[in-house]
Amino acid sequence: MTGKLSRPLLLVGCGKMGSAMLEGWCESGIAAAGVTIIEPMGAPAFEGRNGISVCSDAVELPSNFDPEVVVFAVKPQQMDTVAPAYARFVSGDTVYLSIAAGRTIGYFEEKLAGNAAIVRAMPNTPAAIGQGITVLCPNAKATAAQAGLCRDLLAAVGEAIVVDDETLIDAVTALSGGGPAYVFLMIECLSEAGVQAGLPADLSARLALATVAGSGQLALAGDEPPSKLRENVTSPGGTTLEALKILMANDGLQPLMTRAIAAATRRSRELAGN
Fold first, then answer.
1. pLDDT at 1 over 50
2. Mean of the pLDDT values across residues 210-227?
3. DSSP-based three-state secondary structure for 216
4. Quick one: 21 and 120 in the same domain?
5. Confidence band, pLDDT 50/70/90 cuts, at residue 2
6. Domain-embedded: residue 146
7. Of 118, 138, 165, which marks where a domain is finished?
8. At what angle do helices 226-233 and 201-221 cross, to 10 degrees?
């Protein structure tokens, strides 16, 4: 972590992802200047915590409230009615950080008007345990310091990477944004395959989960690429090789995954109006 906020942070939406990020900010101390949450349903998990206040609507904010960062963490379909209520902060040096899928920088420039400093980001759900990865892209109005501050906020819940090409975000959404769902599906499929091979369901589920989790940690911990780690497990003429002949066939896992990511990327572009 390279810095801390000098003014309060305004978190608009405190659902699963908003809550995950807020926990990271509390633990890291980056938001020591205070956090105000806007959440119509309230935020019981954070109410009463030192430095955190909760409002149900933007109209409850004091007239002199001056946030350093406004974080939009509501569902994309709610943004049309939510975003304009925070245009009042554009005239200052506030930066807007959005994690809403499919909502482009241009979208927020239109909704907020003025010369808003905007950073668009795509995190993923492992942020809930501090293991997320986020790609973020600032607009031309965001200063290097503002982009760096947003990076630090997102780095509090995992790895954060800054890019200057917003068109990459659609593929990022498809790969890492949706990626946890693909991995969870793989766990389900491994477990079911084990059952079909004769394992008791509870044992197969436990083996599948631990294998995927452990393999990911092994890949993160070492310097070898996944291809080398795969080769390390694969003995000539052994059982793993027989399985890989199917998974690595011309109609195997790679073309299937390529089609899946392409489909998700197309949908992200459709949602963004690209």
1. no
2. 95
3. helix
4. yes
5. low
6. yes
7. 165
8. 130
